[in-house]
Specification:
By secondary structure, the chain is α/β, with parallel strands linked by helices. Strand 4, helix 2 and strand 5 form a beta-alpha-beta unit. The chain is built from ten helices and twelve strands.
Length: 370
């Protein structure tokens, strides 16, 4: 059996294989409410054969959205809208489900990518953003409002409330979003965090708010798997880096973190990223080696043999396949066929032209023609 298709236990949740579909924003919600698009999209991905499906970045409060069309989980209406999405997946798929909870901070109030992604004016569906410090993402953009003690308390509570809603909806796992330049990452990096109180300055202080949020979520849903997504480096001199990421991971492990999902960048437009296949794998590899935390790696991994080698060599426990999955939602089927493994598939697809033995649940004696 290829390593990529062996089961893996995240605390009390056993995944059927090591392939993860990471959060990928769809920008298709209305007032934070999931729509029919999400039923179609996640229903499709739930039949991919992956071991875990993580629902896109979900805002914990309205000003925490990236765009006006992000899904949210701050209200009863949001919870009710997401319920049929979860129910439709559960009805036809046994794939474990997670959800990523996040807050955009200064990178919020933006147009959707296919409309340019620029900051949206407050009188055009936009809003006043918030951040650790009043430093805009780009000089020409509106400055965010620096969070005071009341704002920090509000956001902590919003993460907890969203986690409890996710638990009620039946998600198996929760991923706290502290990557890609969004709010919790903004607290970590000295580029965006120039506070002079107990939440800024020294590393211990910059870690404080993200750790408070994580600990609050962990305590709120003790029966659920809870992990985190981080950017291991800003790719900017003087910013957040791998050494600090290892320190963060050690602190998270002490607070009951079940997994760490490691990527990089997103904080500052001056980043310089040497993009190449598997370029982010060494970050998670070191964090895994020094902390023992179950690690998800991601980034320009698009070949089955590449993913298999990462797991077989002990460089990561799980491999996330993102953009390639949007292009080919049956990527895990292709990987299993290439590596000589099996995946679970719904019976409606058993008569497809897959290689013999690919589907682990097919039964002999089918008499009907397509």
């Amino acid at each position: 059996m290829p390593h990529l298709f062996t089961p893996y236990a995240l605390s009390n949740l056993t995944l059927p294989n090591r392939l993860v579909i990471p959060p990928m924003c769809q920008y298709s919600a209305q007032e934070g409410n999931a729509t029919d698009w999400h039923v179609i999209h996640y229903g499709n991905l739930s039949h991919s054969g992956a071991g875990l499906l993580i629902v896109e970045a979900t805002a914990v409060e309205p000003v925490g959205r990236i765009s006006p069309f992000d899904i949210g989980l701050w209200s009863e209406a949001n919870e009710a809208a997401l319920r049929p999405v979860v129910a439709s997946v559960r009805r036809y798929s046994s794939m474990p489900l997670a959800i990523q909870l996040g807050h955009a901070g200064r990178k919020g109030s933006c147009a959707v990518p296919w409309d340019g992604g620029k900051q949206v004016a407050e009188d055009q569906l936009g809003w006043q953003t918030v951040a650790p410090s009043a430093i805009p993402y780009k000089p020409e953009e509106r400055a965010p409002q620096a969070l005071d003690a009341a704002g920090l308390a509000r956001i902590r509570a919003a993460f907890v409330s969203a986690a409890q809603r996710a638990e009620r909806l039946g998600f198996d796992a929760i991923e706290v979003h502290a990557a890609h330049g969004y709010l919790l990452h903004q607290f970590l990096s000295p580029i965006t965090n120039q506070r002079t109180d107990e939440y800024g300055g020294a590393l211990e202080n910059r870690l404080r708010f993200p750790l408070e949020v994580f600990a609050a979520v962990r305590a709120a849903v003790p029966q659920r798997v809870v992990g985190i997504r981080i950017s291991a480096t800003d790719w900017v001199e003087g910013g957040w880096d791998l050494e600090q990421s290892v320190a963060l991971a050690q602190a998270l492990k002490a607070r009951g973190c079940d997994f760490i999902h490691v990527s990089s960048g997103g904080l500052a437009p001056q980043q310089r990223i040497p993009v190449r296949p598997g370029y982010q794998v060494p970050f998670g590899e070191r964090i895994r080696r020094e902390t023992g935390l179950p690690t998800i790696t991601v980034g320009m991994i698009d070949q089955p043999e590449q993913a298999e080698a990462i797991v077989a060599e002990g460089r990561a426990d799980l491999v996330a396949i993102g953009r390639p999955m949007l292009y080919d939602p049956r990527w895990p089927w292709r990987a299993a066929a290439a590596l000589g493994a099996q995946v679970e598939a719904p019976p409606q697809y058993w008569r497809g032209t897959a290689p013999a033995g690919l589907f682990s649940t097919t039964k002999p004696g089918q008499r009907f023609q397509p």
